[in-house]
Amino acid sequence: MAEREQIKKQAPSRTEEVEEEEVPATSEKGEKLKAELDDLLDEIDEVLEENAEDFVRAYVQKGGQ
Amino acid sequence: MAIQKVLGLETEYGIIIRGSPDPNPIAASSALINAYVADLARKVAWDFEDETPGKDARGFAREDAMPPEVETHLVNAVLTNGARYYVDHAHPEYSTPECATPLSAVRYDKAGERILARSVEAAARILPPGQTIVVLKNNSDGKGNSYGTHENYLMDRSVPFARIVQYVMPHFISRQVYTGAGKVGTEASSTGGIDVTFQLTQRADFFEEEVGLETTLKRPIVNTRDEPHCDAQKYRRLHVIVGDANLSEVACFLKVGATALVLSMIEDDWFAKAGDRDYTLANPVQAMRRVSYDMSLHRPLELADGRTMSALEMQWEHFDLARKFTEERGFDSIGGGEGGQQLLDRWERVLTGLESDPMSLANQLDWVAKYRVVDGYRERHGLTWRDPKLAAMDLQYHDVRPEKSLYARVGMEKLLDEADIRTAMTEPPSDTRAYFRGRCLQRWPASIAAANWDSLVFDLGADPLRRVPMMEPLRGTAAHVDTLLEGVSSPAELLERLGS
């Protein structure tokens, strides 16, 4: 399939924005994101349904569109 | 010229009764809706008592504000915001009122979530101890059973249906890159050899046909149900069953907004006029799943004419077409320029983000947000993708209870004020016929025998029932009927003035 014509997107006005976004995140930014996710996961641990296996098994929905 | 895309969203919510020895989803759905209606009546009575002591009967009249329709024996309420709230099959279902803009449709869809959450609270007060009703705004139980979220768009009847099918199907398939609500694993019997640990959408596993009338089995990508609920000579209601329920306001806005624009372009035959821009896929049913299973977003899809293109490239093409279309024809078909420009800007930003780093959209798109938190949890605890904890997290992302919802905790960007969403739980939109329906239900609940999308039926006592037809979705707005409604003091007077 790779030999076939690939359609290129045609919006030159976008190019600059795209390039800006492509700059790799600095390690500082990466660490900040990781810290945020860690906090989030700590918080989520407290609200997760107890007995996940039972919760998942009991959830059956028939008759939907 | 493309007509205004009056919009509405219907959502079948998932429901489970925890702690019951013999759980019955139909009974639970009925209990949920009845509890909401009763709670509303109590609340209104209480409010009213505050102002005018001794006249609390008026409040209970509010209970009749949700008169049953005649065609079903299941619980079926019409709310003062113009929405329908009812038991459909074995699910509670909420249908927004008719909305004039994409953002308004998002607002009424979010109001539906609040209504379900309040229903759960109200039901908790009447359930036996130890039982809890859990309601999920998603589309699958993870075991091969799906339930739908349907979009509705008003279209010009004169547009050939074959043209709609040709041009809307590639959009339905490629838009999954931002409409998907994400799912751990797959429920398809065959994935074509792909190991699916996480996919973009809830629904892709369940589509087996290209075009058809079915909604519960052999589901088609383009649904042919032809039930306009308005003047059938002039209009068609395109009933779209292929989408996911979104919690994300951004994803929901793009889902209905981009689709409304694509349908406007189809009405004006813009794809042909722009140089025969035909994106018909070689195998649409297979492409539906390929897109959903492709987290890289760059896998090529084969077109009928032999070219290949990824879903993301296809969306860029649609975006470019839509931008040129609106430059020439404006935003009237999606309710005006302010929301229209917001839509185009957001569409471009999201496609740009998907192209450079999808994870940068973890605060905007449901599938990205869900993936980030589920995958993070998996890594932290060293779990495999088949661990039931991850499946439970997937379900819990969609829980309507704010204290349980994972969606509510992942820092999603909001497009709407919470106060506006709350208002939309009881107040109708001012710019469609839902306004007339909602206002009449607010003022004269005891005199309305039935409310349908295209009519209100009044019961004035001795006379036969009187039907007020509402065949034009954009008539009956505040601009049309406020003066009339303010000038009458009873439903009899209203009917006299309407001459019906």
**Spatial strand arrangement across the major sheet of chain B:** 3-4-5-1-7-12
Beta-strand percent range of chain A: under 5%
Molecular shape of chain A? elongated
Sheet with most strands of chain A: none
Summed up, what is this model?
The complex is a heterodimer of chains A (65) and B (500). Chain A contains three helices and no strands.
Map the helices and strands.
The complex is a heterodimer of chains A (65) and B (500).
Chain A: H1 15-22, H2 27-47, H3 52-58
Chain B: E1 7-12, E2 14-18, H1 25-51, H2 57-61, E3 76-78, E4 84-88, E5 91-95, H3 102-124, E6 132-136, E7 149-156, H4 161-174, H5 176-179, E8 183-184, E9 198-199, E10 207-212, E11 219-223, E12 235-240, H6 249-267, H7 270-273, H8 284-292, E13 301-302, E14 308-309, H9 311-329, H10 337-356, H11 366-381, H12 388-397, H13 418-423, H14 434-443, E15 448-452, E16 455-458, E17 466-469, H15 478-486, H16 491-498
What are the salient characteristics of this protein?
heterodimer, A: 65 residues, mainly alpha, 3 helices, elongated, disordered N terminus, B: 500 residues, alpha+beta, six-stranded antiparallel β-sheet, three-stranded antiparallel β-sheet, 17 strands
Tell me what you see in this structure.
The complex is a heterodimer of chains A (65) and B (500). Chain A has helices spanning 15-22, 27-47, 52-58. By secondary structure, chain A is an all-alpha fold. Chain A is built from 3 helices and no strands. Chain A is elongated, with a radius of gyration of 22 Å. Chain B is an alpha+beta fold. Chain B has helices spanning 25-51, 57-61, 102-124, 161-174, 176-179, 249-267, 270-273, 284-292, 311-329, 337-356, 366-381, 388-397, 418-423, 434-443, 478-486, 491-498; strands spanning 7-12, 14-18, 76-78, 84-88, 91-95, 132-136, 149-156, 183-184, 198-199, 207-212, 219-223, 235-240, 301-302, 308-309, 448-452, 455-458, 466-469. In chain B, helix 4 packs antiparallel against helix 6 and helix 11 runs antiparallel to helix 12 (388-397). The longest helix of chain B has 27 residues, at 25-51. Classes of the chains: A mainly alpha (65), B alpha+beta (500). Chains A and B meet through helix 1, helix 2 and helix 3 of A and strand 2, strand 14, helix 9, helix 10 and helix 11 of B.
